[in-house]
């Protein structure tokens, strides 16, 4: 199985005090890791590119990652694996962790090799545990995930250390408790463009015959990626703590309605930002035939400073999104 996805977004504001942006993202993946026997493998390539334009100039940032995961099931419950990959030498990019002044374009190559070794354990069909450690351009890296699927829902816990960008969080941060994370789009140029993240996250879902409810909690710390192997040894440039509540109802076999709310407390000392980010959405979806789905989303987002002495925006935004999706299997 595989996936090829390309996203392009352009945002233009009439108000010059806000930042215009071009955002592009490419994702390619192919894998055979469905069976729990023999050799397993997957290949994954991600590329994000950002071009921000603001009053004093522009800032271009690009993030690439290529990795191959090769493993072997030594029994029906245990898989040993290694991840080998290539990523940029972030320490040599010269991209400031404080994106308030223009910098030269950062278009890195795949210059640095990184690796993980780990074990995946599935003692039962409903439980999965994965632990791995490795070495990346920013130093030693650790990953952990635990998931328990229940008859009517599930619970999960994960921890990860990796390079990221706010757009990557927005596009690929698919949670069991909801689709994308619209609250992340409020981060933007005011947050770290390119960073190393430590992220701890837990989620709980409960499902009934015609409805489901999900709760997600997370804490994230972001570090200056240009510090290289010392990145995680310094003070974080940004800290976030957030939660999400998601409710879905089936109105009919073809129609659903989903309500969600998200809340984040953010602290960004280097830019003197200390604020609350909030997002609420209501989505109506209806299947038109076997392969086409229509949806209408109403979205409200806002940021509120937590103190008078801050550079945070007092900002709100309302969106209406109409979407028709066609899926060819």
Write the layout of secondary structure elements.
Layout: E1 2-11, E2 20-31, E3 39-54, E4 57-73, E5 78-87, E6 112-124, E7 127-136, E8 139-150, E9 153-164, H1 166-172, E10 195-207, E11 211-224, E12 238-250, E13 255-268, E14 273-288, E15 292-305, E16 315-326
Antiparallel strand pairs: 1-2, 2-3, 3-4, 4-5, 5-6, 6-7, 7-8, 8-9, 9-10, 10-11, 11-12, 12-13, 13-14, 14-15, 15-16
Category by helix and strand content? mainly beta
Distance between the termini: 11 Å
Q: Considering DSSP H and I runs of 4 or more, what fraction of the residues is helical?
A: under 10%
CA-based gyration radius:
21 Å
- Main beta-sheet annotation: 16 strands, antiparallel
Task: Please mark out the parts with pLDDT under 50 across 5 or more consecutive residues, or reply none.
Answer: 95-105, 171-184
* Shape summary: globular
By DSSP (H or I, 4+ residues per run), the number of helices equals 1
Q: Identify the strand order in the major beta sheet.
A: 1-2-3-4-5-6-7-8-9-10-11-12-13-14-15-16
Order of helices and strands: EEEEEEEEEHEEEEEEE
Provide a short characterization of the protein structure.
By secondary structure, the protein is mainly β.
Which short descriptors sum up this protein?
329 residues; mainly beta; 16-stranded antiparallel beta sheet; 2% helix
Notes on the structure:
- The chain has a 16-stranded antiparallel β-sheet.
- The protein is globular and about 60 Å long.
- It has 1 helix and 16 strands.
- It is mainly β.
